Amino acid sequence: MIDFSRPFAAGRPDGTNASAREVLGHDGRLEPGSLHEIPARQGRAIRLRRGERLRVVNTHGSQVGDFWAFAETDPGEHLSMEHLRPDLRKLRPEPGDALVTNRRRAILTLVEDSSPGVHDTLVASCDIHRYHQLGHEGYHDNCTDNLRMALSALGIPLPAVPCPLNLWMNTPPRENGEMAWLPPVSRPGDHVTFRAEMDLVAVISACPMDLLPINGADAVPRSLSVTVLP
Amino acid sequence: MIDFSRPFAAGRPDGTNASAREVLGHDGRLEPGSLHEIPARQGRAIRLRRGERLRVVNTHGSQVGDFWAFAETDPGEHLSMEHLRPDLRKLRPEPGDALVTNRRRAILTLVEDSSPGVHDTLVASCDIHRYHQLGHEGYHDNCTDNLRMALSALGIPLPAVPCPLNLWMNTPPRENGEMAWLPPVSRPGDHVTFRAEMDLVAVISACPMDLLPINGADAVPRSLSVTVLP
Q1: Do B178 and A129 make contact, defined as CB atoms within 8 angstroms?
Q2: How far apart are CA B118 and CA B93, in angstroms?
Q3: Which of A64, A79, A82, B159 has the fewest CB atoms within 10 Å, counting from its CB?
């Protein structure tokens, strides 16, 4: 019987996934203006001080980024999609919107979005169970383990896995409530910029889904880039 | 400064809220065929064995019920709205749909729905922060604390607060992504029936929201009823 209570339920990532050991900048704190890669299929954590602005760049245009944010003082307080939706009274944030935690406090503001604004707040991060459902056998890189590993690389505990903000993921619900699974409509170089409203740790996973066309029609996972604006 | 890490952040429920001390049936296990009340503004937990069917009755027709389910062997595995939506590829479950956990296993099947089928999977349970946002001062009964109390009455720990299935809550997103806050369209006596697909603990909170018309145009919270079918 699989032990569902532990991460890496079906083995461990192989050596190509460095999410648990490679850290961006100095302990996750980036030099403003420096550009850092989130490698394809991997996750990284970034520390932000209140007022700092984080830009996530869709380098190749077709890549989904699963995005989380945790209060630095207590990772039990985090960006929460089910609190964000009723707070904004809409399914997707737009520039100018404050994004709230599970305690209904602003943790980030979305200050800029150069893309057509198609992001998802409805879908859990992929996990090993999802890949097994889709027919994959053995371990498969997944955003949930990337989150766990990226935080563990900074020594930060993760009490539970929140629903991510899925940047550029194109899974719009129709009026009848049915959802579609479509490639992103973003273009190479499109980016979103967040301003931190408290000291926080953000995590971005370059989604490793290669069994559905969620990362482009060719289903090839690619890298993302991040920078803290000067 | 409010300690956001603890429940009952702004005081404790007064003596009228018995969610932490009153238990349905024998330690939450109901005699099949017996009808039990979930009092207005309160929550109760119910233990179900795999195969048992739980009916939730909207006695007055206008009342929203926040609904959760946890694996009996591990409350870290629970009914999860962000896993349910992609699994069903739609926003709302319908009769015949299996409802999955955060580990993508079926925990319940929705076997029957006598109402028009308008339920919500998008909105977090109300909490003390929500009532303070709406202008209320001091403590206010809320579904999040009702969940905590109903589980604690059975001695069950709660690792995190999942997004509930909001039975009869009428907050449909429009095609443009905007959400409306509307009274329920259910009628007195409407009910939904779930079949347990594993041993589990369900929690139902008769939502105490009285500052928005989510529990009917008169914004008066009322009771619900539950029964385990013989």
Answers
A1: no
A2: 9
A3: B159
Cβ pair B91:A4 closer than 8 A: no
Check whether A68 has a pLDDT greater than 70.
Answer: yes
Tell me the backbone φ, ψ of residue B165, rounded to 5 degrees.
-85, 115
CA-angle at B52, arms to B47 and B53, nearest 5°: 100
How many angstroms separate the CA atoms of A32 and A49, rounded? 12
Residue of B41, B69, B94 lying closest to B215 (CA atoms): B41
Q: What is the ipTM of this complex?
A: 0.94
- What is the sign of the dihedral through the CA atoms of B88, B94, B97 and B100? positive
Q: Which residues of A touch B124 (CB under 8 A)?
A: 80, 82-83, 86, 102
Minimal CA–CA distance to A58: which of A122, A20, A99, A113? A113
What is the reported pTM? 0.94
Give the number of residues written for chain B.
Answer: 230
d(CA B102, CA A124): 8
* Tokens at A67, concatenated: 């995005």
